[in-house]
Structures are given as structure tokens and as C-alpha cells.
């Protein structure tokens, strides 16, 4: 639908109130003929079926994700190695019964507590760990997709020497002579390159290595660095510090490009703390308001109650203005240098901070430079927030490492003889101006250890397969410092070793061939126990303590202690721009660099689940785009899909433009994680490589770039208009103190049809309970939903939902059972943004049931709308009858051709659907059935509230989804139905959906109730 749009006309339409209150895309807002044609053909017919997807890409996709065929794709091994029948039943293992292990998922080196469900020794599903003090039961998209990464056939499966398969013994032999020379020179010329290290056990191994080789130099490479946070604290307090937020003590929040709700190491823990504080404020009759300014929209800024699109230079000036307000200048006086939306935002945010003095919270994100972070620390100090809403600890990552630029300098000078690159990919993730591969060629002995044979492995002499976290022992700290334990849920599939084990090969002990007892995960367990056994601790006492820690998944009371801080000398305010500079800045275009919200830095780019996961704001899949503002699009006459060239400092990249509402006027956004260059991998050739333009000194911003049209057009694949519903009032917003926008209690739309046997909305559901039945239902809190997509990935993992590929999504054949609609409201340049998860509604008066000619979609006695796959003949009538557009049809055999061992890696409780079958959300019927069976064993006892948790509900970090039995008046879901904000989506159609929503919250007109 790349069609020229009249953006000024759209602005006038919205300003006049003639446009829709909520809209999903610029095409939908304009109502173009192309958009109307898309709606008419949204459910494609059988004609394109003969046009299968491109064969090579289709085969890659099948290998990667259709079947999770990790054990059958790359060599003759079929997963049936030493096969011995049980003689003695293993302890705690019941054939066919699930077994959960508490462990940790790693995100840029930081840990989030998870539980991994296994079945007969096979990891199947990641859940949150409710006992973990940081993650509190939530997960994120990368944690959910980690189980797919375990079985990924593109993972490294063997030691390689100069690109040819080798063995561990061959590597140890080659290492012997090199280590002997290093011992003689004290390790001179020996360099170690890792990612950020939060693992105490790995840090101890590095320390032992540095003791054995005093000349060893350790460097850290990170695609998404946190240096600005630590350098800002150093400027403000004289030392690097980690900043922790206490949202529960705050009454108002101000975010300067903050990212506490965005995908990242802190998302799971911080988003839970934020929504808990917001709910507590609502219970007190007030709103924990969030004021956000950002150059490009993110999950934090779009969830704000007051939003401002501001370029990077303006953000620094906003921070200086807020500091003047905090130090005594009236908000009106500080805002005199601003005009329009900027002045209004500054006055409002400044007044809110002053009103909440000592209980406000100002934050900045990783994309901001150290100077802005230092100003933020001073704002919090001047307002008395430090020590109450903002506290500080020592940095979580282990210190003492140099940066990559020091390694580049040493390589350029020929001073690097041996380089061990452990779990990093600097050839891809390094800035283009560093030319890492060019310098790497000068190193005589270079070793790469990673989970993939990637861009860096191709330039190394030796490549070593690194074990996946789900098949190795280890530890790592969460953002609050809590030490999470990592334990294997399965033996290494491809003979990989953990980072700890690989480092021991370089230790002072000679790496002689190991005995079987010294190999594999048991060696890693020994290293981990060595780290955490206290000096002089009794063996039995330690084993008991360690076993309890493994059961919990973390070591209790290991969070880092709060540190006292004092501000040092004043930080210089940004120099006010002259009128001439302001005019020049108005013509200058800046580029900001951000990690991709799905594949992050590209390390997981081979996972089909993440590639086919719609980006939260653009809903683009399988690529990245160049995000531009509506103002910039007007100025340069751009439309979505125009291929543009972005140039700076003699370097250039090309990508498809995407007009993004809420983007700062003169800012373009380039996302990381794409443009991979690994032959025959799933990520090969997808999108552009933003690292080509990324500067090493300022990795999140280029202050001056040239943006030009190439004259070509592309078609970014997006799901933003897929499932467009006909109607109105999709999203409701409850202003604080205003009359309720929810449905009236007990409201029922008159109907000519007979009352459904399992009818029940709100309090009426008690009738079902009186008859002895259950009435399953779901309530989704739109105020709590941050659009993170964890629910989508969890649903895909739980329900064996296939990945279909870029071409099939472009045809409208996206298969996910759950979608998260993104709606805009208001102005193009600074709209309000709302997220709405839309699963099957499980309507009590379901139109789909009326339309099916073979009764393949039916209702059961507990109110579930069931799909009987064996009856389905593929007429797709139910799909056309569904007003919510939540049914998916298997146009092709997306799951066929799998080896038997690959099929075992699916959830055995969920049917794998064939071609020609309709499918949809089932409320995780398999979990409900499991609870019924358990209840039947206990004399058909009632199922306690909370026993059944859907996959989407369990994954949500903000607990936006509540599920349970509506006939139980004491259940959480019944209580949510009684909330005055509760309403039914398209309730005017009288479908009586079992899934309902709680309206989003917004500030009210009445003063004094915000904050």
C-alpha cells in the first residue's frame, strides 16, 4: 500500500475532529483506495496457492523454525545417540509428566529468572520464575525464544579450524605450544575479548587467568553499551554507579528518552515495578503520571501520559531547563526560551516535579550521553529524590576491562599475538569506522567461541562451539545485583562448552585430554560450586544450601547494597543555541541508533519466532526500516516504502523509509540487528546494517546525516492492517475523575436469539456456577499493556504455531493466534498510542459457530469456543464471520516433512495442524484439561483460582492479563469484570465475548489528582 498520502490534509482532518478517534495506520486514516482493496482481499483466496514461497528461503525457514528441527538439520545425527532403556526409573521423572527447572535467561549478560518446562528430558517452554526477586514471574521476547535458540540448526555444532571441522582434542594440541610461549612471556600479547560480564564465577575465572598471565589484557565489546549511564554517574558523583528506581515511592515520573519499559535487560523487572506503583496510585484515587520526551518513540515514551517529540540537542536543553526549575526558577520562566508543545510540556513536567518534591523521579535512557545523565542526577538531587525514589548501587557488570578501541590500537600496532574472543561477534557488532576484521587479520593466533559460526568466526583461526545457557552451568546477576543460577535442562546437543569451561583450557594447568568425568556439564558444575562454597563451610551444609538455591533459581540476599552518594562539582549546562544555529539545526537531520525491539543486537537474528514478531510500533516483520517523521516526509516528499540512502562521513546505507507518527521532526531512526552476512543463515540478507554508519565515539547518535531518495521503492512487510476490524470504540480511555467508560453492570444488548446455555457477562456468570459449571474468561488491562510482545512469543512456543516466512506474511497468512493492535489518537506529530492484545474472544453468541457448515467450531459447557481440527474442511466461513479477525488458516503445509525426532520437540499436548485447517486461540485448552484431570483425581474438587494460567498471561511482565473462572465470584477475573473500566470489544454486536478489557487510564481535568 505504498501510496502518496496528503499528510497536511490528514492533519487538518484530525484537527477538525472529522477523522476517527483511533487509527492503526496512515493508510487506514486516509482511507485510500489501496487500503480498501487490501481489506477486501485480506483473506486471500486459493489462486496464489500455486505460488509457493521462494524455495531456498522456504527450506531455510523450515529448518530453522517450522519443526524446531535442531537435531536433524545439519548432519546425520538423529538425536538417538547412546540409547539405553530405563532399568531404574530416574528420580522425579514420570514419563510424559512435565518437570520444571529454575534457571536464568541471559540478556546482554544480565540475568532474568525463568522456569523451563521439560518433558521426558526435552526443554519445551520458558515460564517466568515468580519467586525471583527481580523478574517476579515475568519474561520478555528473548527469554521466551531462548528455547527455540537451543534447537536452532544454525547453531555451531563442531570445533572448526580455518573453516573446516576439527575436534576439541585438536584444538587442545594446538593450544599447548601457544600457552607454553605465553607462560614464558608472562602473557604479553595475550588479549581476551568478552561481552559485559555480570557472572561472579566467570569473573573469578578471568581473575585466575590474569594471575597466571600478568600481561593479559581484557576487553569488553557490547553492541548496546551502557557507558553513558556509568560515565554520567562518574561526572555527578565521582564514580560509576548503577541507578535503581523505586517507583512505589514516586508520585510523578519524568523520562528524557528513558527506556525502563523498552526491551532490554531491565524491562521485566522495571515494568513490573512501574505497573505495581501505578495500580497502587489508582487505588488511592490518583495517577502516577509519566511525562516523556524522546527523539524516537519507544515503549516508555508511548505509554506516557504527556509526550513530547524532541531531538537529541533539545533533550539536553530540556534537562538543563528542568535543573533550573528544580533549583528554584519558576516553570514559566524556565519555559520562556521554548514555545508551542515544548513549552507546555516543560511547564507541566516542571510543575509536577515541584509538587512532588522528594517524591518525583527523573530518568534518562541508555541512548543519552553522559552529560544528560549527569544533569538528571543533579535534578533528582536538587528535588530531594535521591535516596527515596532513586537509589544507587555499584555497577552490576564487573569492572576492570578495557574497551574495544584499545584492542584495535593494539592490533594495529602488531602487539596482539593471541586473541580469545568469547561469546562476542566484533566483526559484525563493531562500528564500521573501526574496521575490526581488517585489524584482526594481523593477529597470528585468533580463537572465537560462540553459539554460532558468525562473521567473526569466519575470520578466526579456530572456532569453538559455545554451549547454550539451557545446556550449561553458570551464574549471572540481574540488574538489581541478585545472583541467578544457570543450570542445564538437557545435555549439550552439539558438544558445546560453557564460557567457564573454555577459560579453564587457558589456565595454568596444562590442557591435557580430559577424562569423561572431567568433560561436559559436570565440569561446569564443579567450577560453579568452587565459586559459591564459603571458606571453611561444611560440605554437607554447602550441598544443602546450594540445592536450595538451585530449587529457587537464585542465591537469596545477593542484591547489591545501596550506596551513599554526594554530588561533586557542577556540570556545565548546554550552551544555548544562537538564532543562526537554530536555523541551521532546522535543516540538519540527525540519526539515532536503537536496538531492534525483536532481535535486539542481531545475536538472535536466526530465530524465526523473533523475525516474524511484529515490531511494537511499526508492526514490520523480517526486516528493519528507516523511520522518519511526518514532517520530514513532507519536506523530502517521502512515502512509506521509498528506498532512501542515509550518508555520513563517507559511509552509506540504504533502507526502506517508514513514516512514524511521534518521531522528532528532524530525526531518523536506524535500528540494529540486521544486515547480517553469514551465508545460508536465516538472517542473511535481511534489512540493512546500521553499524556501517554508527560512530564509535557516540554510538547512539550521528548529529548530521544526508537523507536522499534513491528513486526505488520497496514493500516492507507489516501486519499493522492485518485483522482490521469494522466498527468503533475499540480502545476506551478512562480519565481520572470522569464518569465511567466501562459497560454498565449486567448490561445485555437485546437479541432475537435464545440465551446461550453458558451465558454470563460480569455478575451474570454466577448463574453458570449455580448450575455447577465453570465459565472461563479473560480480562486484559489496557493500562498495563506496554506492547512488549512477550505474550505473542509465549503463545507461539506453547501452541506449536508455525513461522510462515516473509512472503506468506505479505500475502496476509500470518499465523499467530494473538495479535497486539497498536492504535494512535490525536495529532500526527505527537499522538497518543495505545496497545490492545486481541486473542479469540470465546464469544457466548459466536458468529463463527453459525457459519461453519460441518460444526468444526463449537461451544462446550464451560463457555469455550472450540475448534475441532479433524472436522474442518477449510471453507473459511468462520473466518469471514468473525468480527474480531482472530482466526488463522493453514494455506500451506507449514509443519510437514519433519523427522520424528523433530516432532518430539513440539509441545506434545497441542495438536500440530495440517494444511487446510483453521486454528485460533484456545485459552490454552491443554492447561485447562490438565487442571480438570487433577481435579478429577481429587474427587472432582473445585479448581482453585490461579491454577490455570494461559501462556500469554504467564509471560506478561506487567500482569496485564487475568484469566480464570467467572462463575467463582472470588476469582481475580471476576473481580476484574466488576471493575468500572471493564468493557466488551465490539459489544454492540451482542457476541458476548468472554474476553473483555479494562480501559486505559489518563489524567483528569481535576487538578491535584495527578501524582
Written description of the protein model:
Helix content is 28%, strand content 18%. It starts with 6 loop residues before the first helix and ends in a 9-residue tail after the last strand. The chain contains 32 helices and 38 strands. Helix 11 (312-326) packs parallel to helix 13. The chain is globular and about 90 Å long.
Task: List key phrases describing it.
32 helices; 38 strands; eight-stranded mixed β-sheet; 1011 residues
List the helices and strands and how they pair.
Layout: H1 7-16, H2 26-30, H3 33-40, H4 55-66, E1 98-107, E2 110-119, E3 122-128, H5 141-150, E4 160-161, E5 164-165, H6 168-184, E6 190-194, H7 200-212, E7 217-220, H8 227-237, E8 242-245, E9 252-256, H9 267-283, E10 289-294, H10 299-302, E11 306-309, H11 312-326, H12 331-334, H13 340-355, E12 360-364, H14 370-383, E13 390-393, E14 402-403, H15 404-412, E15 418-422, H16 426-429, H17 436-440, E16 445-450, E17 462-465, E18 474-477, E19 483-486, H18 499-504, H19 521-532, H20 539-552, E20 554-555, H21 579-587, E21 589-594, H22 608-611, E22 626-628, H23 630-636, E23 642-648, E24 651-659, E25 667-671, E26 701-713, E27 733-735, H24 766-770, E28 776-781, H25 790-798, H26 806-810, E29 819-825, E30 832-838, H27 847-851, E31 857-859, E32 865-867, H28 877-881, E33 888-889, H29 900-903, E34 918-919, H30 925-937, H31 951-955, E35 961-965, H32 972-977, E36 982-983, E37 995-998, E38 1000-1002
Parallel strand pairs: 6-7, 6-15, 7-14, 9-10, 9-12, 10-11, 15-16, 16-17, 21-25, 22-24, 27-38, 28-37
Antiparallel strand pairs: 1-2, 2-3, 4-5, 4-17, 8-13, 18-19, 19-20, 21-26, 23-24, 23-26, 28-35, 29-30, 31-32, 33-34, 36-37
Helix pairs in contact: 5-25, 8-14, 11-13, 11-14
Amino acid at each position: 500500500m505504498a501510496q502518496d498520502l496528503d499528510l497536511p490534509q490528514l492533519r487538518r482532518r484530525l484537527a477538525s475532529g472529522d477523522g476517527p478517534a483511533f487509527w492503526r495506520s496512515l493508510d487506514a486514516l486516509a482511507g485510500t483506495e489501496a487500503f480498501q482493496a487490501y481489506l477486501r482481499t485480506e483473506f486471500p483466496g486459493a489462486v496464489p496457492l500455486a505460488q509457493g514461497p521462494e524455495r531456498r528461503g522456504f527450506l531455510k525457514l523450515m529448518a530453522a523454525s517450522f519443526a524446531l528441527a535442531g537435531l536433524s538439520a545439519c548432519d546425520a545425527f538423529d538425536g538417538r545417540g547412546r540409547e539405553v532403556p530405563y532399568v531404574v526409573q530416574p528420580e522425579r521423572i514420570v514419563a510424559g509428566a512435565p518437570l520444571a527447572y529454575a534457571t536464568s535467561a541471559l540478556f546482554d549478560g544480565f540475568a532474568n529468572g525463568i522456569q523451563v518446562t521439560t518433558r521426558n528430558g526435552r526443554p519445551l517452554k520458558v515460564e517466568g520464575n515468580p519467586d525471583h526477586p527481580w523478574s517476579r514471574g515475568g519474561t520478555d521476547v528473548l527469554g521466551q525464544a531462548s528455547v527455540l535458540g537451543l534447537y536452532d540448526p544454525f547453531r555451531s555444532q563442531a570445533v572448526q579450524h580455518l573453516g573446516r571441522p576439527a575436534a576439541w582434542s585438536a584444538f587442545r594440541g594446538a593450544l599447548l605450544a601457544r600457552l607454553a610461549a605465553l607462560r614464558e612471556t608472562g602473557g604479553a600479547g595475550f588479549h581476551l575479548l568478552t561481552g559485559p560480564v555480570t557472572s561472579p564465577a566467570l569473573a573469578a575465572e578471568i581473575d585466575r587467568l590474569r594471575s597466571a598471565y600478568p600481561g593479559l589484557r581484557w576487553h569488553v565489546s557490547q553492541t548496546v553499551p551502557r557507558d553513558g549511564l556509568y560515565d554520567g554517574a562518574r561526572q555527578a558523583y565521582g564514580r560509576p554507579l548503577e541507578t535503581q528506581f523505586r517507583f512505589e515511592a514516586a508520585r510523578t515520573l519524568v523520562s528524557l528518552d528513558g527506556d525502563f519499559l523498552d526491551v532490554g535487560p531491565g524491562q521485566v523487572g522495571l515494568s513490573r515495578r512501574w505497573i505495581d506503583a501505578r495500580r497502587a496510585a489508582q487505588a488511592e484515587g490518583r495517577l502516577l503520571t509519566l511525562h516523556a520526551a524522546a527523539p524516537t518513540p519507544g515503549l516508555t515514551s508511548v505509554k506516557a501520559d504527556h509526550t513530547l517529540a524532541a531531538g537529541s540537542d533539545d533533550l539536553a536543553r530540556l534537562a538543563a531547563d528542568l535543573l533550573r526549575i528544580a533549583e528554584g526558577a519558576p516553570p514559566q520562566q524556565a519555559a520562556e526560551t521554548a514555545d508551542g508543545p515544548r513549552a507546555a510540556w516543560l511547564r507541566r513536567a516542571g510543575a509536577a516535579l515541584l509538587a512532588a518534591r522528594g517524591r518525583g523521579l527523573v530518568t534518562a535512557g541508555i541512548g543519552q550521553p553522559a552529560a544528560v545523565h549527569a544533569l538528571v542526577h543533579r535534578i533528582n538531587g536538587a528535588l530531594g529524590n535521591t535516596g527515596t525514589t532513586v537509589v544507587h548501587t555499584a555497577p552490576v557488570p564487573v569492572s576492570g576491562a578495557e574497551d574495544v578501541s584499545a584492542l584495535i590500537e593494539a592490533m594495529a600496532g602488531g602487539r596482539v599475538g593471541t586473541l580469545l574472543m568469547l561469546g562476542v561477534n566484533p566483526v559484525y557488532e563493531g562500528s564500521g569506522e573501526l574496521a575490526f576484521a581488517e585489524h584482526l587479520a594481523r593477529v597470528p593466533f585468533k580463537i572465537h567461541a560462540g553459539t554460532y559460526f558468525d562473521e567473526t568466526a569466519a575470520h578466526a583461526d579456530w572456532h569453538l562451539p559455545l554451549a547454550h545457557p539451557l545446556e550449561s552451568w553458570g551464574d549471572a546477576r540481574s540488574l538489581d545485583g541478585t545472583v541467578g543460577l544457570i543450570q542445564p535442562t538437557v545435555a549439550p546437543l552439539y558438544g558445546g562448552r560453557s564460557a567457564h569451561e573454555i577459560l579453564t583450557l587457558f589456565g595454568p594447568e596444562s590442557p591435557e585430554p580430559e577424562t569423561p568425568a572431567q568433560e561436559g556439564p559436570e565440569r561446569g558444575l564443579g567450577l560453579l560450586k568452587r565459586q559459591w562454597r564459603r571458606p571453611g563451610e561444611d560440605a554437607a551444609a554447602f550441598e544443602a544450601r546450594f540445592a536450595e538455591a538451585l530449587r529457587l533459581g537464585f542465591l537469596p540476599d545477593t542484591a547489591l547494597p545501596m550506596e551513599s552518594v554526594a554530588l561533586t562539582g557542577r556540570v556545565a549546562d548546554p550552551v544555548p543555541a544562537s538564532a543562526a544555529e537554530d536555523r541551521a539545526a532546522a535543516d540538519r537531520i540527525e540519526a539515532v541508533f536503537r536496538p531492534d525491539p525483536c532481535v535486539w543486537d542481531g545475536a538472535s537474528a536466526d530465530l524465526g519466532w523473533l523475525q516474524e514478531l511484529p515490531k511494537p510500533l511499526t508492526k514490520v516483520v523480517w526486516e528493519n526500516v528507516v523511520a522518519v517523521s511526518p514532517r520530514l516526509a513532507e519536506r523530502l516528499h517521502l512515502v512509506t516504502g521509498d528506498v532512501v540512502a542515509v550518508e555520513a562521513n563517507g559511509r552509506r546505507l540504504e533502507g526502506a523509509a517508514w513514516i512514524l507518527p511521534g518521531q522528532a521532526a528532524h530525526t531518523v531512526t536506524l535500528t540494529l540487528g540486521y544486515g547480517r552476512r553469514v551465508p545460508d543463515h536465516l538472517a542473511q540478507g535481511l534489512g540493512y546494517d546500521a553499524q556501517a554508519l554508527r560512530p564509535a565515539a557516540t554510538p547512539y547518535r550521528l548529529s548530521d546525516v544526508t537523507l536522499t531518495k534513491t528513486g526505488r521503492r520497496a514493500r516492507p512487510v507489516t501486519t499493522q492492517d492485518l485483522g482490521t476490524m469494522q466498527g468503533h470504540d475499540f480502545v476506551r480511555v478512562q480519565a481520572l475523575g470522569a464518569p465511567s467508560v466501562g459497560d454498565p453492570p449486567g448490561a445485555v444488548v437485546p437479541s432475537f436469539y435464545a440465551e446461550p446455555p453458558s451465558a454470563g457477562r460480569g455478575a451474570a456468570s454466577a448463574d453458570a456456577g449455580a448450575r455447577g459449571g465453570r465459565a472461563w474468561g479473560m480480562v486484559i488491562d489496557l493500562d498495563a499493556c506496554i506492547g512488549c510482545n512477550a505474550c505473542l512469543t509465549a503463545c507461539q512456543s506453547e501452541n506449536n504455531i508455525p513461522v510462515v516466512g516473509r512472503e506468506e506474511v505479505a500475502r496476509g497468512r500470518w499465523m499467530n493466534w494473538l495479535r497486539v493492535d497498536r492504535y494512535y489518537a490525536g495529532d500526527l506529530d505527537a499522538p497518543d498510542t495505545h496497545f490492545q492484545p486481541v486473542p479469540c474472544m470465546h464469544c457466548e453468541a459466536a458468529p463463527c459457530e453459525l457459519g461453519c457448515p460441518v460444526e468444526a467450531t463449537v461451544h462446550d459447557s464451560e463457555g469455550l469456543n472450540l475448534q475441532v481440527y479433524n472436522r474442518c474442511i477449510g471453507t473459511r466461513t468462520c473466518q469471514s464471520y468473525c468480527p474480531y479477525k482472530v482466526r488463522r488458516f493453514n494455506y500451506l503445509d507449514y509443519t510437514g516433512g519433519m523427522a520424528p525426532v523433530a516432532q518430539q520437540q513440539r509441545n506434545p499436548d497441542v495438536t500440530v495442524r495440517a494444511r487446510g485447517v483453521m486454528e485460533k486461540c484456545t485459552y490454552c485448552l491443554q492447561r485447562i484439561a490438565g487442571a480438570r484431570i487433577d481435579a478429577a483425581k481429587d474427587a472432582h474438587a473445585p479448581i482453585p483460582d490461579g491454577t490455570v494460567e494461559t501462556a500469554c498471561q504467564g509471560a506478561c511482565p506487567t500482569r496485564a492479563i487475568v484469566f480464570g473462572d467467572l462463575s467463582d465470584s472470588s476469582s481475580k477475573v471476576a473481580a476484574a469484570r466488576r471493575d468500572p473500566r471493564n468493557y466488551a470489544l465490539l459489544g454492540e454486536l451482542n457476541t458476548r465475548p468472554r474476553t473483555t478489557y479494562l480501559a486505559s487510564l489518563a489524567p483528569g481535568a481535576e487538578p491535584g489528582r495527578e501524582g
